[in-house]
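Example record for the data management plan.
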Amino acid sequence: MYDVWKNALAEIEQQISSANYSTWFQDTSLISTQDGDVKINVKNTFYVKQLQNRYYDIIKKALENNNVKVNTITFEVQASTKHKVRPREVIRSGPSSISDQINNLRGSFHPQSSSSAAKTISETGLNQKYTLDTFIVGSNNDLAFSVAKSIIDSPGTRYNPFFLYGGPGLGKTHLVQAIGNELVKRNPDYRVFYTPISHFYSDFIDAIRNGKGKEFYRKFQKLDCLIIDDFQLIVNKDKSQEEFFNIFNDLYQLNKQIIVTSDRLPSQIKTVDERLASRLTWAGAFDIQLPKFEDKCAILRAKAEQIGAEIEPEAIEYIAENVNTNIRDLEGEFSAILLMSDVRGLTPLELIHNGSVNVNKTSKMRPVLPKQVVDKVAKFYNLAPDELKSKSRVSHIMLARQVAMFLLSKELGLSTNKVASEVNVKDHTTVMHGIKKIEKCLKLDFNLRDQIEEIKGQLYG
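Corresponding structural encoding:
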């Protein structure tokens, strides 16, 4: 059976991109093919939907080409391979300073007992709870996940440096620490070090103050993989930037893996040196986006499986529908509902139905009227409301109009026809175009993201 699935996978791999194959098929297995009822083992419930909707016909044909009768294909999550969601906050471990942690790297990376190996992992600054198995893959992060797996297989080559960006609470820290943990797991000699950029520059300043600048620099030269988190916080730290620039160059020249996370692109951090900004994206920039409805449902199901919680599918969908900020908030609301359920002796769905739960993490909620949205957006862009609703094609007026469309749709939940009426455009197709344009721009334009957050703050503040 193993050979049958291996041959089928080889055929599937020729028909889809390497990134999609790595994400959706690499960890699958064939359970049975009895009487034409094929059962395939997958990681979690999100994989079930993706494989069913996107790849069912490809899988069926590949199996039939390998002499397997196929009447139906069922995707099952086996207990041994279920993905589990872990807390995504950064948990510091090991020594308190970079200097102390890197000092401990000397002589530590050699084959050793399991107890000393565990100690070595803690000295990397990594939290061992962050693993690839506990990272839920969805349409919002599948490309970044595929790149992570490529780095683990071949560090310091194609994706070097690996620059990962996206908003807070989306799993950036989880993914990059999972890379580090897997590298050390595969090779105890591999010297990995994780640190937030704020720790980097505070320890650098301490080293300079104590006349140990050269020693600080030399310690980083010994690393095989450097992981820097929250790079956007390096603003206005010229000396630290210069030191990091030099460390970056040395490690890069030696084909050592460099991984950096940020909430935005380097070019959009105004005080970052242009040379450094350019180098950080030499291998491209990869983002993690806000999870879609299906992604959020998969995360919550995995979370429930992890802790053995009983929660109705309708309750999961209610939470997923009403939390539109980030994964951290999603898991927080999930935990709060389970706690209330336990205290009151009601199921989560019963709590929702009787009005005991009011989950809404779209924004800071307070009743807002459509007219208020239009007025606030117009004022923000120094326009009169009538100008925003005019037929003008001037770029800044069009932008304001599209932002208003976006907020009316996403914040107030208005239909496209209703949005069209509020901003005085002809039909809903114009609204759909405007909303999609803003959504696309938000992926890269952090100035626009900041503007929209400021407008929302004015609406709900």
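Summary line stored alongside the record: The radius of gyration is 25 Å.
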